[in-house]
Amino acid sequence: MAELVDALVLGTSRAIGEGSSPFRPTKKFMKVTIENKKGLSKDLKVIIDKKTMDSYLNEKYEEIKKNYTLKGFRPGKAPREILKRQFGDAIMGEVLDKVLKDTSTKALEENKIRPALQPKIDLKKYGEGKELEYVIKVTELPEIDTKQLSNIKFDDFKIKIEKKHTEERIKEIAKTQNNFKDALDNHKAEKGNLVIFDFKATSNGIDFKGGEGKNTQLILGRDLFIKGFDDQLYGVKKKDTKKVEVTLPENFPEKDFANKKAIFECTISNIKINHEVKVDDDFAKNLGAKDLNGLKELISKQINDEYKNSLDTLTKNQILDQIDKIKIDAIPQDLIDQEIKVLTYGMKEEEINKKKKEFEDKAKKRIKTGLILNEYGQKNKINVTEQELNMEIQKQFQMMPGQEKMVKDYYEKNPSAIASLRGSIYEEKIINEIKKQAKANIKEISKEEAEKILKSENEKAIKQTVGKVNKEKKDQKKDTKPAPKQKKITTSKKTRPSKSKKVSKK
Predict the structure, then answer these.
(1) What angle do CA 75, 78, 81 make, to 5 degrees?
(2) 117 and 235 share a domain?
(3) What pTM, to 2 d.p., does this model score?
(4) Does residue 249 contact residue 258 with C-beta atoms inside 8 Å?
(5) Do 389 and 428 share a domain, yes or no?
(6) 415-437 and 386-399 helices cross at what angle (nearest 10)?
(7) Is 309 inside any structural domain?
(8) pLDDT tens-digit profile of 164-204?
(9) Of 138, 130, 143, 144, nearest in space to 107 by CA
């Protein structure tokens, strides 16, 4: 949806000549009449008089003359006829391009037409010493009453995070923190202990690269070194020497030794036991908080945000469902066709034709919502700044640590990805503005109630998905149902030919 809203904004601004040079001819130089009006589609016949066209051409010829030196003539004194023979077509092309941009923009503005898509221009008459006549074929955006959006009602969830929920989360975090302390000398290594050792490895008595290590640390039971290595270190003590026999992995860097058996001679230097982490100010500081109370505040907010984000999605869906009920007199067919192409991208024509009505309905729904949101955004002067765009990209950097360059390159090489991101931010800002003007039903709920609501919505979504899949399977069975067997044609007794009687001789 966000991409569609953004596309509508961009399409409209481009269609009305965003970035073109402003031209303000008086009405006597440009005549505009509306013809062939059919719903939202119409043709604008535009006539630019000969005098205006001549002024554009003269200006262009003077510009060329100043910068062109012709043998036998002083700089800037080349005759127009010679310039015309050499550059006439190119000059006419440039002049036409400029006049069409300037005057088509003015024609649309004067007639208060906002194009849904890029208008098409059909040249009818042009040339030196002639007036310019062309037709703008345009589909305009429908009239939308955004006042109805103030009648929208939505649930605004406020979650109460209790002290016990915060403490439970902190305990869970504490369990994930390592707090290893030296074991007694006679302690035998067991699951969860940290074993520190040096090793020297050989395969068939041959040394290999990577077969020697110092102060290697291994938490037993995780099997993160070489498969089966941990199991053979159970029961070792400090200063023990243990031979561990394993098969080197298939992806071992030294290819000649991959999948080969190897013996690791390990000298145990220390064994550490993981002790329960004490939840105090020091623990909180290690996690970046000022103290334990500060950590509790951060964790409480984190839990709240987790549920709030999911519940805000429900709120957004409530708003979009009500927007879908707002009536629009007509939706431009060109937009519907364009959206169907997006929805069916990569699909086979046979599959598209089979679900043509379904795709059309979905396209209409998406376009209608996009048009309403876009209209509301423009009326409320909502836009997306470069700063907001950069902040969103920075968030993605934080979500993908170590891959910042990859994310940066992706957006630099994919303008469509930037447009999509801009559209998402734009849509979110519109929804937030609608919330301010709509009627909020504030619901204060507990964490347990929030979980119950989200679980119910999740089950509903799964049920709808399963129903849709089952329907598709059912439709496929109908389409592939074998033709009924043809009955054998049998002749009834009544129609069966009778045996001819023998003629007896008398």
Answers:
(1) 170
(2) no
(3) 0.65
(4) yes
(5) yes
(6) 110
(7) yes
(8) 999 999 999 998 889 999 999 999 999 999 999 999 999 99
(9) 138
